[in-house]
Amino acid sequence: MGVMRLGYMHVRVTDLEEAKQHYSNTLGMKIVAEDGARAHLKCWDEWDHHSLVLEEGGVGLVKAGYKCATAEDLDIFEHRAFAFGATVSRMSKGDNLAVGDGVRVVLPSDHVIELYHDIEYGGTETGTLNPDPWPRARRGVGVPWIDHFLVTADDPATTERFMTEVLDFRASERAITDPADPELIGTWLYCGDSPHDFAVVKGPNGKLHHFGFCLNDWNELLRAGDLFAMDDVPVDVGPTRHGITRGGTIYFFDPSGNRNEVFCGGYRTGPDFPGITWTADQLAKGIFYISREMSERFLTVVT
Amino acid sequence: MHRVTVLPDGVCLPGHPGETILDTVVRAGFRYPYACRRGGCATCKVQLTAGRVVYPRRFAATVLCREEQAAGVCLSCRAVPDGDVVILLQEGDRLCCVSPIRFGQPFFSDTRE
Predict the structure, then answer these.
(1) How large is the ipTM?
(2) Among candidate residues A146, A124, A125, the one with its CA nearest the CA of residue A51
(3) I need a labelling partner for B96 at 20 to 30 A (CA). Which of A43, A257, B32, B107 fits?
(4) Could A297 and B35 be called an inter-chain contact, meaning their C-beta atoms sit closer than 8 Å?
(5) Which runs of E-coded beta strand occur in chain B?
(6) Residue A119 main-chain phi, psi, to 5 deg
(7) In this predicted structure, what is the pLDDT of residue A74?
(8) What residues of A are labeled active site?
(9) In angstroms, how far is the first alpha carbon of chain A from the final one?
(10) Which of A248, A24, A31 is nearest to A138 (CA)?
């Protein structure tokens, strides 16, 4: 059955209190657990225990967790990852708060992902019995869920090969240099029916470009922008639209300098999606559809 | 009140107590390359050629390490001057003046004119 979705992001933040303010008050996540150096948070429309772990000290990605449909998936993926030649290890229930046994893999891009099946149930804030469409106590931007993250890698093609061969991800969109002699400079990969659950672009190994939260529509996106102004959140790009994924977007920075995204829209994929290609000469339109101009800041800042 | 002098342009700006170097520059209507404004991306690094700074808010050692600090590299979005300071922008960077806003004129002007 395979990987279902991105389950959690685990990131480093220089100041845990400031990070909690940003993710809970500005973005509206709920803090579900904390101990000194770490805080666990979830979005209102997520039902698993948590989707974000903030760990004090430094910046950037520690690891990300992808939830799998069955325990058998973990065995299959462990075997395939090992055959691929990746560094694989088992993680035990309790290594991560509320998360069960799983498989920890180091991608060719040096990023660590954890595959798991079992996590404690937290419940959405609207519940499962005669629910409201959104929670009455929705705070700040009120992001419903974490959707995807984008990383950089020296060799996007090998990371793409790992994600597709080992974990059955598929590419919805790929950015190449010259069609006559194509080098892969970016790939957007999905495991469900959204445009992407993981993406990698050419850049230094091991770095995080951003992780993204879903919103419903342009109105919510623009409202989020207003809240960023009110809360003095530095904005990187937007509001604008991507050519790649068709999503409306605003990129902004958390108090440590990690880049976040809120986006809306997109399209439906599924296993038979034909796949889209962007060529380097049109990549500015692919990333910034409306202005069609590259932002140096967007390209160079990673944590 | 302290002064922040920015080289190579030679512009001298008044700083508010407790204000970071970058905030002083931006408040005065200038820009040089910066991005996250939160100490995470290293874009705003400058060379501190005179004076001292303190860092009341944390940033990651991977962004600016002790060796760099000892060599005078300064993370300007996080650095608060302790007295007058002189900073040198990164190779190739120049101060851009974005204020006062005037329509119909070149937006970025050479501040030495």
Answers:
(1) 0.84
(2) A146
(3) A257
(4) yes
(5) 2-7, 11-15, 30-31, 45-54, 73-75, 80-88, 96-97
(6) -145, 145
(7) 98
(8) 148, 196, 210, 242, 251, 261
(9) 33
(10) A24
A59 touches chain B (CB under 8 A): yes
* Nearest chain A Cα distance for residue B42, angstroms: 8
Q: CB distance from A14 to chain B under 8 Å?
A: yes
Which A residues in the span 109-138 are in contact with B, Cβ-Cβ below 8 Å? none
Residue of A57, A58, A255 lying closest to B38 (CB–CB): A255
Structure tokens that stand for A30 in this block: 């709920």
What whole-number distance in Å separates Cα of residue A2 and Cα of residue A81?
A: 14
A198 touches A269 (CB < 8 A): no
Residue A220 near chain B (CB below 8 Å): no
* Residue from the list A253, A296, A297 with its beta carbon closest to the beta carbon of B38: A253
Interface contact flag, B60 A253, Cβ < 8 Å: no
| Model confidence at A230: pLDDT above 90 | yes
Could you give the CA distance from residue B75 to residue A235 in angstroms, rounded to a whole number?
Answer: 19
pLDDT at A199 over 80: yes
